[in-house]
Amino acid sequence: HQAIVEAYGGYVGQAGEILHGKASSIEHDGQAMFAGLANPLPVARYHSLVGSNIPAGLTINANFNGMVMAVRHDADRVCGFQFHPESILTTQGARLLEQTLAWALQKLEHTNTIQPILEKLYQAETLSQQESHQLFSAVVRGEVKPEQLAAALVSMKVRGEQPQEIAGAATALLENAAPFPRPDYL
Prior knowledge:
InterPro entries: Anth_synth/Amidotransfase, Class_I_gatase-like, GATASE, Glycosyl_Trfase_fam3_N_dom, Glycosyl_Trfase_fam3_N_dom_sf, TrpG/PapA_dom. One of its GO terms (molecular function) is anthranilate synthase activity. Pfam families: GATase, Glycos_trans_3N. By secondary structure, this protein is an alpha+beta fold. The chain is 39% helix and 25% strand. Helix 4 packs parallel to helix 6. It is elongated, with a radius of gyration of 22 Å. The mean pLDDT is 89.
């Protein structure tokens, strides 16, 4: 949890009190891995540090008296808990872990939706503009494995890229483009 907060640009510092093997009841947003769980949820806390200055990309999905107890990044399917779901003190810990795994794997399930598109390419078939857009949108989101991307690009190159495939790819790239500020020295 603390490493995730730091990696995404947040800050980790002293919690103010040392909590090792203490039970607390956290409040959560009832979303994703917390769906259907008791709220407040009894959990086991073992920490003396706490995350703060949580960046916009992370969702704070649980807290205790204003202290961040859980974060998630929906696009990257990364989450962290400032408590121990595996502890007997976390009364619904097993369900929380099951739901966390299901939530994390949703990204992989989405990747399977591009499998028919990849199969078309492997059979040297031409993609429609919509299929190309779907494929390259998944590429930009990081949902295509490197070996799948390599195979798709080689398949297109061998038979020759078609205008609608290029248009679909270009549209996906433009939709996901981020502006790059001009440096002051220019």
